[in-house]
Design a protein that fits this description.
Layout: H1 3-43, H2 50-82, E1 87-93, E2 102-107, E3 111-112, E4 118-122, H3 129-133, E5 137-143, E6 146-161, E7 164-170, H4 177-185, H5 201-207, E8 214-219, H6 225-239, E9 249-252, H7 256-262, H8 265-268, E10 276-277, H9 279-286, E11 292-293, H10 296-305, H11 310-316, H12 321-338, E12 344-346, E13 349-351, H13 353-362, H14 368-386, H15 396-405, H16 412-421, E14 434-435, H17 437-451, E15 461-464, H18 472-481, E16 485-490, H19 504-510, E17 514-519, E18 521-522, H20 527-534, E19 543-544, E20 553-557, H21 560-571, E21 577-582, H22 585-594, E22 600-602, E23 612-617, H23 618-621, E24 626-634, H24 642-652, E25 655-664
The protein binds adenosine-5'-triphosphate.
Length: 672
């Protein structure tokens, strides 16, 4: 190993250790000051006036805040002592002499010594873009709106563990190769890991993209979409640290356990954790108080168990973009008849129907309730100009009340009902106080039209995972609720609903300033598993990474007992995580009763991602990954249709290292 690297590491660790000690003594001092002041306040409680108490309290809170920041800083330094950096590159600025090439070490966080010399550069620093973006040769970076050209003359991957240099690899190519292979070969953890050391070029482009208002990432299973979205957040928090706050980022995730699974990535990157919400949690906040709804999760479960049932049909007709168009045009047409075409006489002055209609349409971009308010202002003005008698002009709220009485429908619910009835009697099932999920978002769209909707104005960035499970009408509402920048990720091949939902085309129509990116390399599964899964993919490309492992197995069984035995055998392995992924609830319950080894069930109630043996269904395994995956009950009933093919794709791509499909010998799935 090069001595220069050993020396640099020693120097770095020295500086870091110094900084660690300094921070520690600073923290102790702060703590001491805090306690002293607190003691003083208690002792002299009776002698301090309220202004002094206030002053001291402010000081205490400042010490506390300061102390907290120091603790966070020390934690970063501690992590850096373990592994200060993972790469190095040497850059020669154009015009400089070759001996003047500058060396940069890149790490999870930046670090400068006491003199202010930057010893480690944060991976998100502008200059570090070159590490991910360029190979040896011509390169440039942009900082403070200025482009700096030059040549990358060295690029190294460095592994440091427990402050010890493990290896140094010169890479002439991209960051592919051994390091990535090694990372991917590892067994799963109970939480998602950061990928800073091996972010690939196409991923890096998305992480650092600042131009698009809406970024849509379509990526094959295991292409790192979720990882990329989280690193993008970390990048934004770094780049826009003066204005962007972690608590103002909103992640909409498919289920609770997924939220837990991704929860450590940002803290690992030195950022505050970001709580994610499920669609059900968000929906509860959007609907008026007292209105309940069947959960998205519950409804999806039922639709999956009966894809041709009535519920599925009701949901299906509201799933595609043409439904949004129908509702939009219904509301557009309603505009010209919602306010009855009648004159109104207020305080003896007759307001002509034409005039009222004109005002009503003039404010078309506003919700109905706001329109009436604006009209009331206009009417008061008009009345004032015509007022020639003694007496009082009615006040605004009285006028609004009069106008409201002239509305054909008096609530969003009435409007929605009249619309949905035009779609056929079997198209809906709701009461005043309770909705099926498939009616919730169309209703909220009407609510927006009628009186507006709760907007998350403080949210600065909106992230949505598993985009293919959302329908255009849901996007139409969500885009009104979250008007900030958005990162939307998913895979059209991993649809969990058996009908058309959002499509690339619909995104194009519904969102302006949109950048659509595709990721086709799969990093999660071994080459053999990814290739096997490819046959279940509807369309599109999947490029497996060349990390080899065992061929997936299709094991036949004749009886349930035989299948159970196979499961037991496979589950006894040395990996950290094994998942038995059933198609639906029914199969899960059968196994739950009959499995004879310790396992945990992962479903809608699960809030924590557990290692060990997990029994789950495709619906809940989405987005997650396991070392070993077993897909049981692969028979002609379960896996038959084109939709089932997609489910097989989801299930098999959850596997990183081993995949076994248990096939009913007498009635095998025709999809195999
Ligand atoms: N550049 C990379 N370096 C190392 N590991 C990576 C890289 N990109 C992705 N991975 C790993 O690949 C796995 C899949 O990533 P992730 O879950 O983000 O993919 P996804 O596209 O969201 O998958 P899915 O759609 O199947 O849920 C993770 O273990 C992630 O850490």
């Amino acid at each position: 190993m090069e001595t220069s690297e050993i020396i640099y590491l020693e120097k770095t660790i020295n500086e870091l250790t110094k900084a660690y000690k300094k921070l520690s003594s600073n923290i102790i001092d702060q703590d001491h000051n805090f306690k002293e002041l607190q003691k003083y306040m208690v002792e002299y409680k009776n002698e301090l006036d309220k202004f002094q108490v206030y002053d001291y309290q402010q000081t205490l809170s400042m010490i506390d805040k300061h102390g907290f920041a120091r603790v966070m800083e020390r934690e970063q330094v501690r992590k850096l002592i373990e592994s200060p950096y993972f790469g190095r590159f040497d850059f020669l600025y154009h015009g400089d002499h070759p001996s003047e090439a500058e060396t940069f070490y890149i790490g999870r966080f930046g670090f400068a010594d006491e003199e202010g010399t930057q010893i480690i550069y944060d991976w998100r620093a502008p200059i570090c873009n070159m590490y991910y973006e360029f190979e040896i040769g011509e390169a440039y970076y942009i900082a403070m709106d200025q482009q700096f050209d030059g040549e990358l003359i060295k690029k190294r991957q460095i592994k440091i563990e427990n402050s010890k240099l493990q290896y140094v690899l010169d890479s002439s190519l991209t960051i592919q190769d051994q390091v990535l292979q090694q990372t991917l070969n590892q067994h799963t953890n109970d939480k998602m890991r950061t990928i800073v050391t091996s972010i690939q070029r196409e991923q890096n482009k998305i992480v650092r993209n600042e131009s698009a208002y809406n970024v849509i990432i379509q990526g094959v299973a295991g292409s790192g979409k979720t990882a990329v979205a989280l690193h993008r957040i970390a990048y934004y928090l770094y780049k826009f640290r003066d204005t962007l706050r972690a608590e103002r980022i909103f992640i909409l995730s498919p289920n609770k356990v997924f939220g837990d699974y991704i929860s450590t990535v940002l803290p690992e990157l030195g950022e505050e954790p970001i709580r994610s919400f499920t669609l059900d949690e968000l929906t509860e906040k959007l609907l008026p108080a007292g209105v309940t709804f069947r959960s998205f999760e519950g409804e999806t479960k039922e639709i999956l168990s009966n894809p041709n049932g009535e519920l599925a049909l009701r949901a299906k007709m509201k799933g595609n973009y043409s439904f949004v168009q129908k509702l939009q045009s219904f509301l557009f047409n309603l505009d010209s008849r919602l306010l009855k075409n009648e004159n109104i006489s207020i305080a003896g002055v007759v307001l002509q129907a034409d005039y009222l209609q004109g005002r009503f349409l003039q404010y078309r971009s506003e919700p109905i309730v706001t329109r009436l308010e604006l009209m009331a202002d206009d009417i008061i003005q008009a009345l004032k100009s015509k007022w020639d008698r003694e007496g009082k002009i009615p006040n605004k709220s009285e006028i609004i009340k009069r106008l409201k009485k002239r509305l054909l429908f008096s609530s969003p619910l009435e409007i929605y009902r009249s619309f949905i009835e035009t779609q056929g009697q079997n198209s809906f099932k709701f009461s005043k106080k309770h909705f099926e999920f498939n009616d919730v978002y169309p209703y909220l769209f009407v609510q927006f039209y009628f009186k507006g909707i709760k907007q998350y104005e403080l949210v600065q960035h909106f992230v949505l995972d598993e985009m293919q499970d959302y329908t255009p009408i849901q996007y139409a509402v969500l885009s009104k609720v979250f008007t900030c920048k958005r990162t939307i990720i998913g895979d059209f091949s991993q649809a969990i609903l058996p009908y058309e939902t959002i499509s690339k085309e619909a995104f194009g129509v519904m969102f302006n300033n949109l950048e659509y990116v595709e990721l086709t390399t799969s990093y999660r599964s071994s080459y053999e598993i990814a290739l096997y899964a490819k046959k279940f993919m509807h369309n599109g490309e999947i490029h497996p990474i060349a990390r080899h492992g065992e061929e997936p197995k299709e094991c036949m069984y004749l009886t349930f007992e035989q299948m159970l035995k196979q499961i037991h055998e496979i589950a006894m392995n040395d990996y950290r995580t094994t998942a038995i992924i059933c198609k639906g609830e029914k199969d899960l319950q059968i196994l739950q009763e009959r499995l004879n080894i310790p396992f945990t069930v992962l479903d809608g109630q699960t809030g924590k991602f557990e290692t060990g043996l997990v029994l789950t269904t495709i619906q809940y395994a989405k987005g997650l990954e396991f070392d070993v995956v077993i897909v049981p009950f692969v028979n002609e009933t379960n896996y038959r249709t084109e939709f089932d093919r997609g489910l097989m794709y989801i299930a098999s791509t959850r596997a990183m290292h081993e995949l076994t499909v248990l096939v009913d010998k007498e009635a095998p799935s025709p999809l195999l």
